[in-house]
Write a structure and sequence with these properties.
Number of strands: 13
Bound molecules: pyridoxal-5'-phosphate
Radius of gyration: 22 Å
Low-confidence stretches: 390-402
Distance between the termini: 40 Å
Oligomer: single chain
Strand order of the largest sheet: 2-8-7-6-5-3-4
Order of helices and strands: EHHEHEHEHEHEEEHHEEHEEHEHH
Structural class: alpha/beta
Mean pLDDT: 92
Largest sheet: 7 strands, mixed
């Protein structure tokens, strides 16, 4: 039996076996509570401190600037709520490309009187920094723009956006859940105040995240209790998860350059394969300015068929992700994102997200191209049978994204 091809690494990544080995003692004999003063407790505390230094190092931060959270979602919530709850009615600037963890938190604050403005994006999904200057207000408390989009894969000019925000005197947060460990992020040279991370996107365990909080930036807690994590995230620490996050961060940092080059090469191989080009495939988002292993694909005329395509691929042993109109109009939906990028209603209906990772092999890539082009051809034949004359006109045009 041939093995499955997992190309949904933006949804989650498999745990690296080296991370699993590091975590195992903390799921067994090393079960202590880091707040306890006995040896078991001290061992757990040391492990948490080591992991904090490893996660900090991945971003060029000091360990004291890193707070562990229960997820990337919680890190985003803490960044937005923690900076705005006591500053109501706050003015927040963000984008419609953000993850629901940001958009829904902003929506909640709006019910409490906050004013939310959304920066426009261009046809590649990128924010123009000068537009930020136009909508900053004296009462702007926070600007939150993701480093790279989970759906489109494009990288935002967060460095320029952070500089403009800081000149104005507001706080700048970036959700780097998709970007961290894949592209360099350095808070010692970039004026980010707050950065969200999540371990399971970089071959670490699920259910553990972190928030970088620049020294001197004040946040209010959103979880109350025993005062762990500098009082910002009360709860007994998830020691095994934190240890796993630390090792995953260290591995990502060591392997970042080589891995980015390898995945970029695979990405280009898929994108420029003549079999995909000739079946009406086009790239959504920026061609170069994107995460190394991230492809967001559209198929001319098949926008309504993305769910069918992903199910066909699943049957053939390939796991990818789809954004389809079924999920339209909720925050962070594919439909909203593509509409914002200027796609018309018909073309905003769907996309296929193909995300490569550490365990993607050259053989996976070759098999994937073959399986995808066959699946698209099959869908087009079905379409042709029902909408006679349609497919040939679509396929004849050279690929061109919006
Ligand atoms: N932010 C972005 C950009 C994401 O892609 C995700 C997860 O997909 C999250 C936040 C949420 O992270 P978590 O799954 O750890 O809650």
């Amino acid at each position: 039996m041939t093995s499955r091809i997992y190309l949904d690494n933006s949804a989650t990544t498999p745990l690296d076996p080296r991370v699993r080995v590091a975590m195992e003692p903390f799921l067994g004999a090393a079960f202590g509570n880091p707040s306890s003063l006995h040896r078991e407790g001290k061992k757990a505390r040391e492990a948490v401190d080591t992991a904090r230094a490893q996660v900090a190092s991945l971003m060029g931060a000091s360990p004291s600037e890193v707070i562990f959270t229960g997820s990337g979602t919680e890190a985003d919530n803490l960044a937005v709520l923690g900076s705005c709850v006591k500053n109501e009615p706050a003015h927040i600037i963000t984008t419609v490309l953000e993850h629901a963890a940001i958009l829904e938190t902003c929506r909640f604050l709006k019910t409490r009187g906050a004013k939310i403005d959304y920066l426009p994006v261009d046809s590649k999904g990128i924010v123009e920094p000068e537009n930020l200057r136009k909508i900053l207000r004296p009462e702007t408390r926070l600007v939150s723009v993701m480093t790279a989009s989970n759906i489109i894969g494009t990288i935002q000019p967060v460095e320029s956006l952070a500089k403009i925000t800081k000149e104005h005197g507001s706080l700048f947060h970036t959700d780097a859940v998709q970007a961290c460990g894949k592209i360099p992020i350095n808070v010692s040279t970039t004026p980010f105040d707050l950065v969200s991370l999540s371990a399971h996107k970089l071959h670490g365990p699920k259910g553990i995240g972190a928030l970088y909080i620049r020294d001197g930036v004040h946040l209010d807690p959103i979880v109350f209790g025993g005062g762990q994590e500098r009082g910002l995230r009360s709860a007994t620490e998830n020691v095994a998860g934190i240890v796993g996050f630390g090792v995953a961060a260290e591995l990502a940092q060591k392997e970042l350059a080589a891995e980015a080059a390898r995945l970029r090469e695979f990405r280009q191989q898929i994108l420029h394969d003549p079999r995909l080009d000739s079946c009406g495939t086009f790239l959504i988002g920026h061609a170069e300015n994107r995460l190394p292993g991230h492809l967001c694909l559209g198929f001319h005329g098949l926008e309504h068929e993305m769910l069918k395509l992903s199910l066909l691929l699943d049957e053939e042993g390939v796991a990818v992700s789809t954004g389809s109109a079924c999920s339209s109009n909720h925050s962070g939906s594919t439909f909203n994102i593509l509409s914002e990028m200027g796609f018309d209603e018909a073309r905003s209906q769907g996309l296929l997200r193909v995300t490569l990772g550490r365990f993607t092999t050259a053989e996976d890539v070759a098999r994937f191209i073959h399986i995808l082009s066959a699946a698209v051809a099959k869908l087009r034949r079905r379409h042709y049978a029902t909408n006679s004359g349609f497919a040939s006109s679509v396929v004849s045009g050279k690929s061109q994204g919006a």
